[in-house]
């Protein structure tokens, strides 16, 4: 992860929706779209988009990952930014697509150029659009942030999530003891090692319960689904919401 120079606010962006948002949390994708349009941006959502190739890549099947990535790359040919409401998927596009195509004379340069245009949503809102939120009359709420391992360690976007939440009127960000720990999802890790994964998410839900938060937010749907369903299974009343949905609800009054 290297420090990057951020551009001036653009007029048009792409939105890369991610598989998990498309299949499980479509309201988060709509919230991201609403936030971007609220900022005056024209948003292009290529309808042919699907997966970033991360499941195949992290399972060691680089040929399949290249096939998927190459198909996606062709959909984002125009030179404007690509906004991704997921740290792990953004990390795949920015960090791993260039590695996948490093030896390809044609797709390699395209992957490297595309990587420069990829921004995780909170990073884009804070660093490029420099958002400021007016008072909205929303009631006060204590909220905890979970940053996925990829977002925290690969993309370096935890600070952006913190800054975004602290800028929201009425939202009090509370710390929780296991915040830096993995929730146990880890994609196929949770399938290959369910006992370890289950113990990890139990630590996470216990930490959140002790924090006194009223709501959990994260910019990664895999983590949200894992933590939220684990809490429900344990009988813990924990509302888990994608950060885009939380911000849109507080700022625009959009549905969660």
Structure notes:
- The longest helix is centred in the last third of the chain and has 18 residues, at 194-211.
- The protein is built from 13 helices and eight strands.
- The strands form two sheets. It has a four-stranded parallel beta sheet, with helices on both faces. It has a four-stranded parallel beta sheet with strand order 6-5-7-8, sandwiched between helices.
- The protein has helices spanning 19-23, 26-38, 54-58, 62-73, 87-100, 107-115, 121-128, 149-155, 158-166, 189-192, 194-211, 221-233, 243-252; strands spanning 12-15, 42-44, 82-84, 118-120, 141-146, 171-173, 215-218, 239-242.
- The protein is globular.
- The chain has two domains: 12-128; 141-252, Rossmann fold.
- The chain is an alpha/beta fold.
- Helix 5 packs antiparallel against helix 6.
Quick overview:
This protein is an alpha/beta fold and 256 residues long. It has helices spanning 19-23, 26-38, 54-58, 62-73, 87-100, 107-115, 121-128, 149-155, 158-166, 189-192, 194-211, 221-233, 243-252; strands at 12-15, 42-44, 82-84, 118-120, 141-146, 171-173, 215-218, 239-242.
């Amino acid at each position: 992860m290297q420090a990057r120079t951020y551009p001036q606010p653009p007029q048009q962006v792409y939105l890369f929706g991610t598989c998990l948002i498309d299949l499980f949390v479509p309201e988060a994708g709509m919230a991201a779209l609403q936030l971007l349009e609220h900022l005056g941006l024209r948003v292009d959502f290529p309808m042919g988009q699907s997966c970033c190739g991360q499941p195949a890549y992290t399972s060691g099947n680089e040929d399949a990952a290249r096939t998927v990535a190459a198909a996606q790359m062709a959909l984002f040919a125009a030179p404007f930014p690509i906004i991704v409401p997921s740290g792990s998927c953004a990390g795949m596009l920015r960090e791993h697509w260039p590695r996948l195509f490093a030896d390809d004379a044609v797709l390699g340069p395209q992957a490297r150029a595309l990587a420069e245009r990829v921004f995780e949503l909170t990073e884009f809102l804070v660093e490029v659009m420099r958002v400021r939120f007016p008072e909205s009359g929303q009631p006060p709420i204590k909220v905890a942030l979970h940053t996925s391992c990829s977002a925290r360690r690969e993309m370096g976007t935890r600070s952006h999530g913190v800054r975004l939440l602290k800028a929201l009127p009425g939202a009090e960000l509370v710390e929780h003891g296991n915040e830096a720990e993995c929730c146990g999802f880890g994609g196929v890790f949770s399938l290959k090692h369910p006992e370890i994964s289950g113990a990890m998410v139990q630590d996470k839900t216990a930490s959140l319960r002790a924090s006194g938060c009223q709501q959990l937010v994260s910019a990664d749907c895999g983590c949200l689904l894992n933590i939220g369903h684990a809490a429900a299974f344990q009988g813990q009343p924990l509302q888990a919401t994608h950060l885009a949905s939380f911000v849109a609800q507080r700022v625009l009054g959009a549905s969660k």
